[in-house]
């Protein structure tokens, strides 16, 4: 682009910006008038905040610093009201009115100069001396402000980039399946979602495994916003208005390692010519490709490259593709890496399901370039889905690592509830640990090396005796940890000692600056009403610690309610008031998106504290109307009501499992209630509702249970026996009528590690229930256990994730 063309385009964008200002002023005035004279409503506050945020981020970019200053003042006044939902006080309204007047004056001043801008020469428009084609990158820009997006695209094109604009994150995500990008520029705020870009980035990284570096742009300059963006996986955070030089410098730094940011393919083939052809074809499609012509070096290559997918020659001298796949299968880190075999031998198809949990593809020679790329994308998408499902249903990915997020949060919630019931103030801390120089580490070492560095930090944390594996990866280079503190140590001293131990560990092997840690902590003393409150306290403490670039520790203070009633009294009161909440827990099928959920119930007291079943069920029989059977009826009624709200294909396919209380009264009295609830609901399809009873209860009275199961089958319900133990299965096999499914208990995790010992008993159970597709494995400890059950044909796994019904359905449509 020539200097003249650039200047002309800049002038057009500036005029376009000015023409849009009256519309912005109208939005601000109309909503402020409504807030002042009609009623205080959150949508109007949101509309004003969004407009002010947009103007704050774009004013200086187009030469109007006064707009940026005035808009930012208004934005800062509205932001706390938007986050808390509070109605503004009289003093706050006066301040907002003054800020509004200042912003209107700034807009008027800009508009008065509009005519001059229309006729002005291009001399006042900053333009580069010469066109720059040095970056040569394909960059996605997600920005809802079309004018600002046009400005940024102009800069990017001037630097030699191909810039593709998307107005929403969802539009960009759809393009990911068709195209590849070197970098993403993402706005933090979108209409109706002040932190919408951060929320989307968090979910898309989990759902799709997004690997391209992300630079977040925001008019918000507070530390908490920056912390949340980096935790979500942003490689960098730039405040709006964005300076042209700052943006270019940041892009140059991140694009230095662009090959590592792409999806990584490792080709293992002793044929040099074919390897070169594969590399050329896949690099043209946007993949980062490494070739290994000496197959015996596969383990070193896997550690060094950390590929997302493998392309293996099926037949090689010394070691063939089958042997390579079997070797990798023994390492839990590589279980969810898909494998594409290249073979001229039709017998290769016999091994279709043998090697990778996520499945294999077999391509015959000669190869078709389009088919190869199609298979790569297909299996990478499947690998992300399977990996996500494994995380939903396992304690941890590897024995040496921290826990998966869902399991960690569930255990934290249980621990908080237990402390409230006991009034326990033992020394346990929740830590929010962040590598505060993660930007530098990514830019210095590249994405692949940074991921390996994160793994080393995770293993170091998991092995620490005070942590003992109790923690999770909360975001990129961000960890949540539960720490047991010795009785004779002060919390502040203990946490700072832990941070210093990490700071003194050389995680980068002397190559550049080491990792710098910022740490926020809170004492888990029962004063936190729920997990969200505990997380927010540590997040704020970490944000405070983050202000010190050299790394520091901040311990949040605990605030206890003076009028707090005893926990058991609160539980009894909540039970009497039927303060139950319904949650759904997925039973994950690693091969399909089969929608099956187990129903779980929680208790919520007046203060909003949540209690899991094992902490309130003992009270139910004494304080609830109808005892445990009454609770069963409540769960059945509310579950079926939720199911009747489903629409579309979910209305006929979504199924749930309801655990019945293991008491004799259940067999005597619950059937009429179930029949009436189902008849009134008019649910479509058979086996939409499954009912489960534990094995120990079933074995006590098999004849009565058989009759009970028979009645449920006549109502088109399914039946499940759960908590099937690893020992003593003979009674179940010989005395109990076959259910539709069985669910194994956690004892199988240890037994299956000894495959030779576990195989006979597990095969008998599989035969008894009519096939491995009718077996659910529960409490999976790590990926190696997944692989062991997988080898027996088991595909259903009990997840640790619990969500409210609407959220559970939304999750199932995403993965």
Described by strand count, sense and barrel closure, the largest sheet is: 8 strands, mixed, barrel
Oligomer: single chain
**Number of helical segments?**
31
Which secondary-structure class do the elements indicate?
Answer: alpha/beta
Distance between the termini: 43 Å
The CATH superfamily of the largest domain is known as EAL domain
CATH architecture of the largest domain: Alpha-Beta Barrel
- The total of beta strands comes to 24
CATH class of the largest domain: Alpha Beta
Note the beta-strand portion: 15-25%
User: Can you tell me the number of structural domains?
Assistant: 5
Q: What radius of gyration results from the CA coordinates?
A: 30 Å
Helical content (DSSP H or I, runs of 4+):
40-55%
Low-confidence stretches: 115-131, 560-565, 808-815
Annotated CATH topology of the largest domain: TIM Barrel
- What strand order characterises the main sheet? 16-17-19-20-21-22-23-24
Q: Specify the overall morphology.
A: globular
The averaged pLDDT comes out at 81
Chain-wise SSE layout:
Blueprint: H1 3-37, H2 42-58, H3 65-84, H4 90-112, H5 114-119, E1 138-142, H6 146-158, E2 162-166, H7 169-176, E3 183-187, H8 196-208, E4 214-218, H9 223-232, E5 236-239, H10 244-255, H11 258-261, E6 264-268, H12 272-284, E7 288-292, H13 298-305, E8 309-313, H14 321-329, E9 339-343, E10 360-364, H15 369-393, H16 405-422, E11 428-435, H17 438-463, E12 471-475, E13 478-484, H18 491-503, E14 517-523, H19 531-546, E15 553-556, H20 567-576, E16 580-589, E17 596-604, E18 610-611, H21 617-623, H22 627-644, H23 650-653, E19 655-659, H24 664-681, E20 689-694, H25 695-700, H26 702-714, E21 718-724, H27 730-735, E22 741-744, H28 747-751, H29 755-769, E23 775-777, H30 783-791, E24 796-798, H31 805-814
Parallel strand pairs: 1-2, 1-3, 3-4, 4-5, 6-7, 6-8, 8-9, 9-10, 14-15, 17-19, 19-20, 20-21, 21-22, 22-23, 23-24
Antiparallel strand pairs: 11-13, 11-14, 12-13, 16-17, 16-24, 17-18
């Amino acid at each position: 682009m020539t200097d003249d063309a650039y200047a002309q385009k800049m002038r057009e964008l500036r005029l376009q910006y000015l023409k849009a200002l009256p519309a912005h002023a109208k939005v601000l005035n109309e909503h402020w008038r409504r807030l002042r004279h009609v009623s205080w409503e959150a949508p109007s506050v949101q509309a004003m905040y969004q407009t002010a945020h947009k103007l704050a981020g774009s004013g200086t970019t187009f030469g109007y610093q006064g707009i940026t200053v005035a808009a930012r003042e208004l934005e800062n006044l509205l932001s706390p009201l938007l986050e808390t939902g509070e109605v503004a006080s009289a003093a706050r309204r006066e301040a907002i009115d003054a800020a509004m007047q200042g912003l209107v004056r700034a807009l008027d001043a800009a508009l008065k100069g509009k005519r001059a801008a229309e006729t002005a020469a291009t001399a006042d428009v900053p333009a580069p001396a010469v066109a720059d084609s040095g970056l040569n990158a394909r960059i996605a820009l997600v920005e809802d402000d079309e004018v600002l997006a046009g400005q940024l695209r102009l800069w990017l094109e001037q630097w030699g980039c191909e810039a593709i604009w998307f107005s929403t994150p969802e539009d960009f995500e759809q393009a990911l399946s068709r195209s590849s990008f070197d970098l993403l520029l993402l706005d933090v705020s979108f209409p109706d979602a002040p932190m919408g870009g951060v929320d989307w980035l968090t979910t898309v990284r989990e759902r799709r495994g997004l690997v391209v570096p992300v630079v977040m742009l925001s008019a918000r300059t507070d530390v908490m916003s920056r912390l949340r963006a980096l935790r979500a996986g942003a490689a960098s955070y730039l405040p709006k208005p964005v300076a042209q030089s700052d943006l270019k410098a940041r892009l140059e730094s991140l694009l230095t390692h662009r090959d590592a940011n792409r999806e990584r393919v490792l080709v293992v083939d002793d044929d040099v010519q074919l390897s070169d052809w594969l590399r050329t074809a896949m690099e043209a499609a946007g993949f980062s490709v490494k070739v290994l012509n000496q197959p015996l070096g596969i383990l070193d290559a896997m550690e060094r490259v950390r590929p997302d997918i493998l392309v293996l020659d099926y037949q090689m001298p010394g070691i063939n593709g089958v042997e390579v796949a079997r070797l990798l299968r023994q390492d839990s880190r590589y279980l969810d890496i898909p494998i594409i075999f290249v073979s001229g031998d039709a017998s290769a198809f016999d091994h279709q399901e043998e090697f990778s949990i996520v499945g294999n593809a077999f391509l015959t020679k000669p190869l078709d370039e389009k088919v190869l790329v199609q298979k790569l994308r297909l299996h990478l998408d499947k690998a992300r889905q399977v990996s996500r499902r494994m995380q939903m249903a396992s304690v941890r990915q590897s024995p040496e690592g921290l826990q998966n997020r869902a399991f960690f949060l569930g255990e934290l919630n249980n621990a908080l509830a237990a402390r409230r019931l006991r009034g326990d103030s033992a020394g346990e801390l929740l830590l929010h640990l962040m590598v505060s120089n993660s930007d530098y580490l990514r830019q210095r070492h590249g994405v692949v090396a940074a991921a390996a560095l994160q793994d080393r930090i995770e293993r170091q944390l998991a092995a620490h005796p005070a942590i003992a594996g109790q923690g999770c990866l909360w975001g990129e280079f961000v960890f949540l940890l539960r720490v047991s503190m010795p009785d004779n140590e002060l919390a502040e001293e203990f946490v700072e000692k832990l941070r210093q131990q990490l700071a003194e560990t050389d995680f980068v092997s002397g190559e550049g600056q080491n990792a710098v840690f910022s740490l926020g902590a809170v004492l888990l003393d029962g004063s936190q009403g729920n997990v969200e409150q505990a997380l927010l306290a540590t997040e704020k403490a970490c944000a405070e610690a983050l202000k010190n670039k050299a790394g520091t520790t901040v311990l949040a203070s605990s605030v206890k309610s003076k009028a707090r009633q005893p926990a058991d009294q609160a539980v009894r009161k909540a039970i009497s008031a039927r303060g139950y909440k319904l949650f759904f827990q997925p039973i994950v099928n690693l091969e399909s998106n089969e929608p099956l959920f187990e129903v779980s119930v929680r208790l919520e007291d007046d203060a909003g504290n949540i209690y899991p079943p094992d902490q309130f069920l003992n009270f139910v029989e004494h304080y609830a109307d109808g005892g445990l059977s009454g609770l069963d009826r409540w769960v059945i009624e509310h579950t079926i009501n939720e199911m009747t709200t489903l629409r579309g294909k979910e209305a006929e396919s979504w199924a749930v499992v309801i655990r019945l209380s293991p008491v004799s009264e259940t067999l005597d009295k619950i059937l009429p209630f179930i029949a009436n609830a189902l008849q009134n609901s008019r649910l479509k399809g058979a086996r939409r509702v499954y009912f489960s009873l534990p094995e120990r209860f079933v074995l006590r009275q098999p004849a009565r249970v058989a009759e009970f199961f028979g009645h449920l089958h006549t109502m088109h319900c399914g039946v499940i026996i759960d908590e099937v133990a690893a020992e003593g299965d003979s009674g179940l096999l010989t005395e109990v009528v076959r259910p539709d499914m069985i669910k194994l208990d956690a004892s199988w995790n240890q037994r299956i590690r000894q495959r030779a010992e576990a195989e006979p008993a597990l095969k008998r159970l599989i035969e008894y229930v009519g096939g491995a597709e009718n077996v659910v494995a529960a409490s999976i400890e790590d990926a190696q256990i997944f692989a062991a059950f997988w080898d027996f044909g088991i595909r259903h796994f009990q997840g640790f994730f619990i969500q409210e019904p609407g959220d559970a359905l939304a999750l199932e449509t995403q993965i």
